Amino acid sequence: MNEAQIIDELRDKFGERIGTPERLRQHRIVVTVEKENLLDLAKFVKDTYDLNYAISVSGIDYPEQNKFVVVYHLCKMSEEGHLPLVLTLKVPVNRQTPRTPSLISIWQSVEWHERETWELFGIEFEGHPKLERLLLHEDWDEEFPNQFPLRKDFLLEDE
Amino acid sequence: MNIINIILDFLNLENFISNIPNAEVQELLTIVFVFLRSDLFFKILLFPGIFTILITVAELMWLELKLIAKVQLRVGPQYAGRIGGILQPIADFIKLLFKETIVPEKASKVLFLLVPIMLVTLAATTLTVIPLSETDVISNLDVGLLFTFAILAMFPILALLAGWASNSKFPFIGGIRALFQQVSYEVPLWFSALGVVILAESLNFNSIIKAQSTFWFILLLPLGAFIFLVAVIAETERLPFDIPEAETEIASGWMAEYSGLSFGLIMLSLYIKLYFGAAMFTALFLGGWLGPSILPPAFWFLTKTIIVVLIIMMLRGVLPRFRLADLLYIGWRRLLILSMINIFLAITVKLVLF
Amino acid sequence: MYFSVGPQHPGSGHFRMKITLQGDIILNAEPDPGFVHRSVEKIAETREYLQNVPLIERQCLSDVSSVTLAYAMGIEELLGIEVPPRAQYIRVIMCELSRIMSHLYWLAIFGIFLGHSTMFMWPFGDRDILITETAEKIAGARVSYSYIIPGGVRYDLPDGIKEHTMKTLDYFQGRLKEYDAIFFSNPIFKRRTKGVGVLSRSEAIRLGVTGPTLRGSGVRGDIRKDAPYAAYDELDFEIPVYSEGDSYSRSLVRFREMKISSSIIRQAFENLPEGDFKVKTRKKVPEGEVFSRVEAARGELACYLISDGTRKPYRLKMSTPSFRNLPGFSLMKGCMLADMPPIYMSLDYWPLETDR
């Protein structure tokens, strides 16, 4: 399945519900999708193209545009190894009330990544079984109540 | 004329005693001095008693450090003492004397501090019946072998008490594992020694050794010797059987809460047990103090013991640790069956050869 | 009974496991990372691209070259510059050297966890004398040398390095044979690791593990072959794969990787081209995002870099292999307590990498 075919198929199947799939460079396809259509797109992508391996989940903060973006990187893993294509799903999330469905029911391996994104950004993943402290120390809530370190408005001491 | 007599003559204490007015005290002190001048006290204190045991054990520790270092491509102790760090164990012990003995807050204090003392005492007591030569033995019991096994049966209880008295999770787990391990390896130990008793017809160590004057028992009962060696390594908690000591996920087991002099005494008791195990093996299977009479028999005994100790220490450098389940499986099933076969073999040998 | 194999434990690293025991069986073993969190990602947003190279490499100290290579590859893709072939080969050499270093460290800690003190001393001795000295001759420092930068490498190879490395590698082959004899063929080691912590192939892909953990379960997944970078597509090497999925096969994968790395280094030295070792780069990186993947010693390391046209990155996310191997701790359920060290060590977990 080459990349142009994948882009066409996604555009045909989902049309207006997703942003235009873009081919960034060789082996990279980026798709923006709203959180309402996220689960459908994720299931479709997993079943049709057999993208059974989630590489990582990250969050990005865009304070001027008043949104977060949650980024999922997916690839296909077979018995013979990775296939070099990486499909990226970008989900914009409102900055005031950051909530998005969790993809843990589709890919089990995103569990720890989503937990870390919640902790450092404050994005809630609905359906995640365990959103608890992972990396920050236990006294974080007393020292910095309700603050999330990787947001752009959390400044380091030397800034 | 031994050295204690020389020292007491030099100090001339009997003169001092005769000047004391109280007649009963004078009598008491005279009896004490008669004991001090006797042969038995010389044996208890100097040879083959406390002094010999301490020096031998210190040098065994040094031997282990050097041997393991050579296996691991490094040098080992170098600086304490003129020749290659030979006083290193003594230096370690003096350092431990200066450290604070910390007793955990909720531990039972008396039991906590009593266990190391009992360990050292019992370990040294077992050595009173093993002869370094025909006359160099502190007490030539007719039931010497049985005596050593009776004392050996006390050690599992002491390990458990040490773990329980520390009032903490890891020592507790370690203590229970030590109990499991030492109890399960005592039975193969007895049975393989039983093979020797069948051949020698006596429980007295000197008679067993004299019965080996034609053939050493290791040649007649190789299976028994092998089982005995494995059981000795398990009893003294050395690698590859050191689960209670350094497992519980690497936190030093039932000795975890000990520090300072108590810890020093526990280490001492472990090495005394090792020396005792090797000495028993030499006495039962390698012909004890028998050897060509160019050199004194005590020399032969010590040489053979050190060779056995070297074999035991070499295993430490080469093998990793067993799991507890595997260890108990080996002790209760494999070694027990082998030791029963060993008894049958011993009976056969006895009927055929003697 | 609940207890924690905690951070103050001789040998567990800066990491805690919450273990619930019943008798001798582990009911639940939950990892609790986060003791070494230094927020590398946040600090990276306040520094320039070149200043971030020492910052990035300190998040994975045993495997320095691979981490900086991922970062450098990402920046080069954004800048659109092409690294000269000599620099690519030197990068391959440094990556393989650091892979051997990381695997020797793993072997030493594995030995001491199982109680094998000789297997603790030998790899550390060899690692220190052989490999770290070679790295020092090439790059100038022993452990964290910041050698691979965007644009190439910092210095050229010194004279006489080829003979020195060949001698080192010959001696290392002999040492590997001894490791095999004393450790990997040791019956007690085999008994403790065979059949322990079995991870089937579908489960491995589902949990998302990577690196030797994946290759020990029958999946031939290696970025060096699947999406080649640096000079790997011009070199000839194989990927060790075992299909049993227990701790023994994972250990054997790493052991064979050490041999294969030695042969890669030899090939790279034989075919080393002449030329430049560095190209000039700009300080301002154009807008865009890039996702670069390398095969570090512990698995696949992915670097997701977003830049906004200034001198400092907008968002840098490193997806490290140890973090992705965290679901592997569920293998401990149902095992005996004494099976915990082999499983824990066969995952090759490095707390610094997870916490970043």
Secondary-structure-based class of chain C equals alpha+beta
Query: Which strand order spans the largest sheet of chain C, edge to edge or round the barrel?
Result: 1-2-3
The CATH level-2 architecture of chain C is identified as Orthogonal Bundle
Helix content of chain B: 55-70%
Radius of gyration of chain C: 20 Å
Shape of chain C: globular
CATH C-level class of chain C: Mainly Alpha
Written account of the structure:
The complex is a heterotrimer of chains A (159), B (354) and C (356). Chain A has 159 residues and is of the alpha/beta class. In chain A, 25% of the residues lie in helices and 32% in strands. Chain B is built from 17 helices and no strands. In chain B, α10 (169-200) packs antiparallel against α13. The longest helix of chain B is centred in the middle third of the chain and has 32 residues, at 169-200. Chain B starts with a helix and ends with a helix. Chain C is globular and about 65 Å long. Chain C has a three-stranded antiparallel sheet with strand order 1-2-3, with no helix packed on it. In chain C, strands 6-7-8 form a three-stranded antiparallel sheet. Chain C is an alpha+beta fold. In chain C, α5 (118-139) packs antiparallel against α6. The model of chain C has no long low-confidence stretch (mean pLDDT 85). Chain C has helices at 40-44, 52-57, 64-79, 85-114, 118-139, 161-184, 187-193, 201-207, 212-215, 223-226, 247-270, 321-324, 340-346, 351-355, and strands at residues 2-5, 16-22, 25-32, 148-149, 152-153, 288-296, 299-307, 313-319. The B-C interface holds B 68, 71-74, 169-170, 239-240, 242-243, 246-251, 316-326 and C 1, 3, 5, 9-12, 24, 111-119, 121-122, 125, 182-183, 186, 188-189, 191-192, 336-341.
